[in-house]
C-alpha cells in the first residue's frame, strides 16, 4: 500500500550576503558579517515542512544536486529531518542563488544558477522504487529539462506526470512566480495530469488569464471561482487551490468552492516570507494524504504558512500540525 509524499524538483542553496547598500554599475559596496547558507526550493522546503508537521509521515526527496559543499548541505539537512534521500542524484554543480540583502533599504536582489536542477528529467526516475502515495513536483518554469516541449504531451513535465499517474501515484504541481509569458504554454499541459494544483494568485492569473489583482493591488475575490474552474477545466482532477496573503481558496473533488481566510498576525510577528508559499503547500498536501476535506487541508496550509512567517528562514518556523492549528486559537481570521 502506498504511503507518504515524494517531493521532486528544485533543490537550491541560498547564499545570503548582507550589504551596506546597492552599488551603481562599476562601484563597490562592502559585505558585512552574517553570510548565511540555507537550503531552499520546492523539494527542500516542502519536504522539511512535511517532516516537521508529522515526523511519522514517510517523506521522500527526488532530484539532482551537485557533488559539492552545497549538495552536501542539502543532503545533511534532509537526513537530519528524517527524509528519504535515496532518489537524489548527486553530480555536477548544485543550483544556488546569491541573495544580496541591502541592510539599508531592506530590499533583496537575487542572482541564480540553475545547475544540476536543470538536468533533472524522467530518465532519472525508477518509478518502481517510488512507494509514496503523492508525487509533488516544483517548480514548473524552473526545471529546464522538464520545461521542454513534447510532441505527444505538450511538455516533458506533462509526460512525467502522466507516467507518475500510470504508476499509481496521485500528482501535485507548483509553479515559480517568474515574470514571463511562459505560463500559458507550460502550465496547462501539466494540469492535464495533475490531481492537486496548489499555486498563488499571480501564478493562477498568469496561467488562466483571469484577473485576480486590481490596479491598486487589491484581491479580486469575485474572480477566484472562475480562475479555479479554469484550472479544473485544464485538467486538475481533485483539488484546485489558490493561496495568497488574504487566505486560501479552492474547488474540491466535487466542484464545491472553498474560502478560508488567513490569520491576522500582529505587528512584528512576520520575520520573513521566503518559505510561506511552500509551507502552505505542505499543509494542503498533508491534508490530502490524510484524506481530509479541502476546508481542513487549506486551514492547515494557512496555519503552516503563519508558522513559517514567524522565522526568517524558509523552514525554521515550521512546527507540528497540532501546534500549527493552535494558531487559530491565538489569532483572528480574516
Order of helices and strands: EEEHEHEEEEEEHEHEHHEEEHHHH
Compute the separation of the termini in Å.
40 Å
DSSP helical segment count:
10
Helix content: 25-40%
**SS class:** alpha/beta
User: Could you state the CATH homologous superfamily?
Assistant: Ribokinase
CATH class: Alpha Beta
Mean pLDDT: 96
Strand order of the largest sheet: 5-4-1-8-11-12-13-14-15
Number-wise, the strands total: 15
Residue stretches low in confidence (pLDDT < 50, at least 5 long) are none
The name of the CATH topology is UDP-N-acetylmuramoyl-L-alanine:D-glutamate ligase
Percent of residues in beta strands:
25-35%
Which value, in Å, is the CA radius of gyration? Answer: 19 Å
Anisotropy-based shape? globular
CATH architecture: 3-Layer(aba) Sandwich
**Largest sheet, if any?**
9 strands, mixed
Write the layout of secondary structure elements.
Elements: E1 5-9, E2 12-19, E3 36-40, H1 41-53, E4 59-65, H2 69-80, E5 84-90, E6 95-102, E7 108-113, E8 134-140, E9 149-150, E10 154-155, H3 156-166, E11 170-175, H4 183-191, E12 196-200, H5 201-208, H6 224-233, E13 239-244, E14 247-251, E15 257-261, H7 276-290, H8 294-309, H9 321-325, H10 327-330
Parallel strand pairs: 1-4, 1-8, 2-6, 4-5, 8-11, 11-12, 12-13
Antiparallel strand pairs: 2-3, 6-7, 9-10, 13-14, 14-15
Helix pairs in contact: 1-7, 3-4, 4-5, 5-6, 7-8
Amino acid at each position: 500500500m502506498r504511503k507518504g509524499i515524494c517531493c521532486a524538483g528544485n533543490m537550491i542553496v541560498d547564499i545570503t550576503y548582507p550589504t551596506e547598500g546597492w552599488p551603481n554599475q562599476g562601484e563597490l559596496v562592502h559585505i558585512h558579517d552574517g553570510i548565511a547558507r540555507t537550503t531552499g526550493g520546492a523539494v527542500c522546503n516542502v519536504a522539511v515542512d512535511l517532516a516537521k508537521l508529522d515526523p511519522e509521515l514517510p517523506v521522500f526527496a527526488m532530484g539532482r544536486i551537485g557533488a559539492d559543499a552545497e549538495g552536501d548541505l542539502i543532503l545533511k539537512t534532509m537526513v537530519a529531518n528524517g527524509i528519504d534521500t535515496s532518489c537524489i542524484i548527486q553530480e555536477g554543480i548544485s543550483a544556488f542563488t546569491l541573495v544580496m540583502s541591502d541592510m539599508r533599504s531592506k530590499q533583496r536582489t537575487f542572482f541564480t544558477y540553475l545547475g544540476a536542477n536543470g538536468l533533472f528529467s524522467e530518465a532519472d526516475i525508477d518509478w518502481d522504487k517510488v512507494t509514496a502515495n503523492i508525487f509533488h513536483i516544483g517548480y514548473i518554469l524552473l526545471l529546464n529539462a522538464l520545461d521542454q516541449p513534447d510532441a505527444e504531451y505538450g511538455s516533458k513535465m506533462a509526460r512525467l506526470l502522466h507516467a507518475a499517474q500510470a504508476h499509481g501515484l496521485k500528482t501535485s504541481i507548483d509553479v515559480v512566480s517568474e515574470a514571463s509569458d511562459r505560463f500559458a504554454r507550460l502550465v496547462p499541459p501539466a494540469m492535464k495530469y495533475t490531481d492537486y494544483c496548489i499555486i498563488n494568485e499571480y501564478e493562477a492569473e498568469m496561467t488562466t488569464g483571469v484577473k485576480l489583482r486590481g490596479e491598486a493591488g487589491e484581491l479580486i475575490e469575485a474572480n477566484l471561482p472562475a480562475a479555479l474552474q479554469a484550472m479544473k477545466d485544464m485538467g486538475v482532477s481533485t483539488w484546485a487551490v489558490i493561496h495568497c496573503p488574504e487566505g486560501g481558496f479552492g474547488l474540491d473533488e466535487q466542484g464545491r468552492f472553498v474560502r478560508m481566510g488567513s490569520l491576522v498576525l500582529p505587528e512584528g510577528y512576520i520575520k520573513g516570507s521566503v518559505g510561506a508559499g511552500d509551507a502552505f503547500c505542505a499543509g494542503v498536501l498533508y491534508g490530502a494524504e490524510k484524506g481530509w476535506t479541502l476546508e481542513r487541508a487549506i486551514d492547515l496550509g494557512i496555519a503552516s504558512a503563519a508558522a513559517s512567517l514567524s522565522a526568517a528562514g524558509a523552514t525554521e518556523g515550521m512546527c507540528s500540525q497540532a501546534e500549527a492549528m493552535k494558531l487559530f486559537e491565538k489569532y483572528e481570521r480574516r
